[in-house]
Write a structure and sequence with these properties.
Length: about 375
């Protein structure tokens, strides 16, 4: 076993985790059984084999929503949500200046204008108190994303939205099954969005879902999806392998959350200045597709975030930089900016994220993540570390 006082692997030392990060998806006998069942009954190759219908019904029951429509990706589900809410040219849609870039592009796809607001300094997710300052006569909707284990207080968002006649799209792609102020993620807004992409907690390689309690919104979404035949569909085989994963989502979320708490405790005990995202709402239980940390290079003796991430990956830990902030590198003509977006700028420079598969591991796996960070912090003063 490598020692923390050895050189980091990026400088020639032995990796803390030489086998590398865990694979995803993980082996699962129930998924194999679902594959076989879809082959035996032929549903894998049919337009309507029953699996998609079963999945939509199960998602509706799980979220206590009446209407669910699956589609080919979570990104498309956000565009579908905008169209179902009749958002179009001349309208404005508010979203956090630190968010998934696809949401910004979806607003443009329907001809509307993104309005960027700043994020909460504690978790670099949308700050509800910023919404009212962003309002104009053209504002029609808000896209709220819960990112990197950060949770947006949805009760506050919905109060502001209700008082101002705004529709809310809640992007829960990163945390299906999370608890937010007494409800599941994705069930506070007029529309909730899930993703089944290849790295997601519920994975089918590709895919997404659209959740709503409004019959008229659902009907418009279905009409948009069906043009003689369904466009951008989820396949019957994808639905078949998602069903057993949904059965295990709550149990796996609890395990991931426990390991995140353990990791946070170990980092603090070892004096590692990686600050986990801290959520404002106490009655919440995040989901962890990515675990977000706030990184400050000055606390690592000037070691850049890029170099820190490269060093962690060399140790066998699946860590990455976060998203690019939406106002960075884009023409100001493509959006309306509210305020100086200083916290979003900090997020642009300072988010690091840990990929989730290791969170289903044992305490020894979590200890390896902490020891890798400790080793890099211990040696970050060396000029060669900064190369």
């Amino acid at each position: 076993m490598s020692r923390v006082d050895e050189l980091p692997a990026i400088l020639g030392g032995r990796p803390v985790r030489p086998q590398g990060p865990p694979d995803w998806p993980i082996p699962d006998e129930d998924i194999w059984q679902a594959f076989q069942a879809a082959y035996r009954d032929g549903s894998w190759g049919k337009y309507q084999g029953g699996n998609v219908e079963r999945l939509e019904n199960r998602l509706a029951k799980y979220h206590n929503f009446e209407f669910v429509a699956t589609c080919g990706s979570g990104t498309f589900a956000v565009e579908l949500a905008l169209r179902a809410l009749k958002i179009g040219p001349g309208d404005e849609v508010i979203l956090a200046a630190y968010d998934y870039g696809g949401n910004f592009l979806n607003v443009h796809a329907v001809g509307a204008t993104p309005v960027l607001v700043d994020v909460d300094p504690s978790d670099w997710n949308l700050a509800p108190e910023r919404l009212e300052t962003a309002l104009s006569r053209q504002t029609r909707a808000v896209i709220v994303s819960h990112l990197h284990g950060g949770i947006v207080p949805m009760r506050e968002v919905m109060e502001i939205a209700g008082a101002n006649g705004l529709r809310v799209i809640e992007d829960a792609a990163q945390m299906p099954g999370a608890a937010i102020q007494g409800r599941k993620a994705g069930t506070w807004g007029d529309i909730g969005v899930l993703s089944f992409g290849g790295s997601k907690l519920l994975t089918a390689g590709r895919g997404g879902a659209f959740l709503t309690r409004h019959a008229d919104v659902y009907q418009r979404a279905r009409l948009w999806l069906h043009r003689g035949n369904q466009v951008c569909p989820l396949s019957e085989l994808q639905a078949a392998v998602l069903l057993p994963q949904l059965d295990k989502l709550d149990q796996r979320n609890r395990r991931r959350a426990g390991n995140v708490r353990l990791l946070s405790e170990r980092l603090q005990a070892l004096g590692i200045p990686l600050r986990p995202f801290v959520n404002r709402c106490s009655d919440c239980e995040p989901g962890y597709y990515k675990v977000g940390f706030q990184y400050d290079s000055t606390e690592f003796k000037g070691l850049s975030r890029e170099r820190f991430v490269a060093a962690m990956r060399a140790e066998g830990i699946a860590m990455d930089e976060g998203f690019r902030a939406l106002h960075v590198g884009r023409s100001p003509s493509r959006f309306r900016q509210v305020g100086d977006l200083s916290e979003a700028g900090k997020a642009h420079e300072g988010v690091v994220i840990l990929h989730h598969p290791v969170l289903l591991g044992e305490p020894t796996d979590i200890e390896e993540v902490a020891r890798a960070a400790q080793r890099i912090h211990l040696h970050s003063h060396q000029p060669s570390t900064h190369v």
